[in-house]
């Protein structure tokens, strides 16, 4: 087969579905943003943003380490030869994570009820449910990505946002136009999608294991080590990405937090879709490529292309940032175009640093980057506590950008240690 035919086949079977999935997720996310910012006032949107941040912390910090390990090791020869047993154990680990989530959520719900904050009681309850559902949905995404079944990934991504939006709007319309009813509806919509995915997903293993005595100790030692390392990394990642709103709430107030969350949602949606596109397209190629120089070539091409795309996006926000804010949010948020530029630059730099970690993931050493996440979280916290003035949204955006720059710098410094060692060796 000629090189041109190979490229055409690769585009039709891989790139086209990557683009379709990311565009679908982007469109649903932007439509959701437009609807919610026009049916909620700033304080209500702050409540909704806290709900989404809490659920995001749960699935990213608790479920994603296991899903990342599946994505990393599923195609290895050792796991392919033990496919049924492996997925049986994976299912059991997911169930254990669900128990942990319920215990954590129950603890915070009890605390909220004890002090009489019933709105936060229901917020944490719904966020815990959505976090658990999202974690399990991403488990299917990780499996399909490892098998390069990008058509199914695209469908799940599209239906995930759609089901959440439909459930949220149903809750809002049926129960007194309240943000509280909306968050419960979002959780219910995502749960119904998970049921459908579990029912119709075609997996090469049985839902219930026929292997008596399977236990997590039966997993290959490399898989377990990688998963534990990812727990440390993803917990710090989740704190850096999702706990900022809880920190800002008492500092700038709920109304200012609502505006900040609206603009940040638009910024993170755009850059997350960019990151997802590059991850889905390049990571399977990087993980499966041989020999090492080809892996490095893929990684350099990925980082360079992402950098160019980010510069173009930030420049567009700087020149015409008020236009997407006006089209996709509301007039109140549209007056904060400068904040959008800061947050798009910051979130894009953050995602670029995550792409630099591909080499460490390949070498089974993602845990080496925990100082970078800690630097990000500490920098933003100190900036918020010492510099941020009440209601100053630009200062919050500046703190986010500064934290992202230090995150990228520390990530680049850590990555240098991999350049003088062969890829794929675990030097822990």
Description:
The chain is mainly alpha-helical and 428 residues long. It folds into 2 domains: 11-231, no CATH class; 243-418, no CATH class. Helix content is 83%, strand content 0%. The two termini are 42 Å apart. The model is unreliable at 204-214 and 422-428 (pLDDT under 50). It has helices spanning 3-39, 42-73, 77-80, 83-114, 118-146, 150-174, 179-200, 221-242, 244-288, 292-320, 322-328, 331-334, 337-356, 358-362, 370-386, 393-419.
Basic shape: globular
Tally of individual domains: 2
Helix residue percentage: over 70%
Counted by DSSP, the helix tally is 16
Main sheet?
A: none
Give a short summary of the structure.
Helices cover 83% and strands 0% of the residues.
Give the topology:
Layout: H1 3-39, H2 42-73, H3 77-80, H4 83-114, H5 118-146, H6 150-174, H7 179-200, H8 221-242, H9 244-288, H10 292-320, H11 322-328, H12 331-334, H13 337-356, H14 358-362, H15 370-386, H16 393-419
Helix pairs in contact: 1-6, 1-9, 2-4, 2-5, 2-7, 2-8, 2-9, 4-5, 5-6, 5-7, 6-7, 8-15, 9-10, 9-13, 9-15, 10-13, 13-16, 15-16
